[in-house]
Amino acid sequence: MNHTVNDRCVDFSVLAIVFSNPASVLAGRELCGRSRKLEVKLPKRGTGVMTTELAYSGPEVRTVPRDLRELLEQLRAKSRVLNIERAVLPEPDVASFCRAASELGDTTILFDNITGYKGKRLLVNLLASWANCALMSGLPSDLPIRELVDELCSRADRQPREPVLIDVGNAPSYECLDTSDVDLYRSLPLFRVNEHDGGFYLHKACVVSEDLVAGARHDRMKFGMYSLQVQGRDRLGVHLSGTDNLSLHVRIAEKPHRRLPVAVCLGVPPLAALVASAAIGYEATEYNLISALYQHPFELTRCVMSKLSVPAYAEYVLEGYIEPGLRCLAGPFTCNGGGLSEIKRQPQIVVTGIAHRRDPILDNTYVGKFWAEHDCLIGIAGTLRLHKQAKDSLPEIARSGTRAEGVHLRLGLCGGRWDEKRSVAGMSFQDGLPAENCLSAYKQEIGEAQRRQAQCRSQS
Questions:
Q1: Between the CA of residue 73 and those of 80, 83, 118, 274, what are the distances in Å?
Q2: Mean pLDDT throughout 369-387?
Q3: Helix (H, G, I), strand (E, B) or coil at 233
Q4: CA 141 to CA 150: how far, in whole Å?
Q5: What is the DSSP letter of 90?
Q6: Which of 7, 24, 335, 356 is deepest in the core (most CB within 10 A)?
Q7: Count of Cβ atoms closer than 10 Å to residue 68 Cβ
Q8: What's the distance, CA 62 to chain centroid?
Q9: How many other C-beta atoms are found inside a 10 Å radius of the C-beta of residue 199?
């Protein structure tokens, strides 16, 4: 589909349009039918990223939320997020609210007033429902799951888009930076997710690492989601499987006994979190896939202590490195379904700097017995991964035009039934923090907040 802009022909089906202000980006197809004055410039070269700038005097139009905060605004408008404004304790209040919300269903909670963490907020269960997953994709909240997955797979099939690199001085994720007195306990509103966890866990931590042999190129950097355990003021234990991309980068760095630079990103844009959890393969480029799903170039910025590229709109960026040959005990933590992980010797991240936005929001998730955010992420991410692997590994699928014929690759999600008591590594325990009689008070508070929210919405 071609359109004439200032007497120049532009193919909006393949052209990613980037505003002269790097923070304003949208897909070209959103401008179709608008009678605004546009000025197309030739692509910039020599920056490692090819983009096209566009001067646009009209209001910005974005269907996909650019970051966590834009999605929160959409959820508030639809009464799909609960704000807990009263003062709460990290333990037991936060963990109890998380479990109560998980038992009640798809409830997203934003804590605005956590004792001991003035000016810092905590978000849990952001993508714990298919409706929220549809909104993060710029789609109607009542869209059927099959159509949501089909749309995301269709976007992933389109021509890959390069991300755009913006200056660190203009990146919201680096509005505040501390490199002299790093203290994770002071900077992050931490809480113990489950009673039997070995410490404070960050279950939605997206880690950026690089192949030290290939060099600092964004297409050779890997962006994956891992569970991290806070093990000290500036120490994070990272749970690796041995076959993931970060494990490979650690082995490559340890051969010449070199430190591996890493960046831990918390509160990343929602679609970026989806791709990070997908484990799409070592040869694939996560940032390009994020751009495809967003339908516009994904905004990155460069770390101040390394050459790694990180999401420019992350809420937190923890810069650091993995010391070669160092292994520390990590675990256990509660897995999906309520079982405990093993205690293993794992690599440890040394944090050398903490950057964050003003009034940052820590995005974490509850993992336990009941349906939670990870279940939605695993479902959609698993479908994207299978779709991509099928296209790459089975050429006959790519050539057959299956999508046009109405044949879809689908992932069936089966819910298991779990007993109240489980035995893990020879230890029996009762799942739950706290007991049910204590949890009822938190459920009641959530129910009252939902009723007040519904009344305010009906009156408006």
A1: 10, 12, 22, 19
A2: 84
A3: coil
A4: 15
A5: I
A6: 356
A7: 23
A8: 19
A9: 15
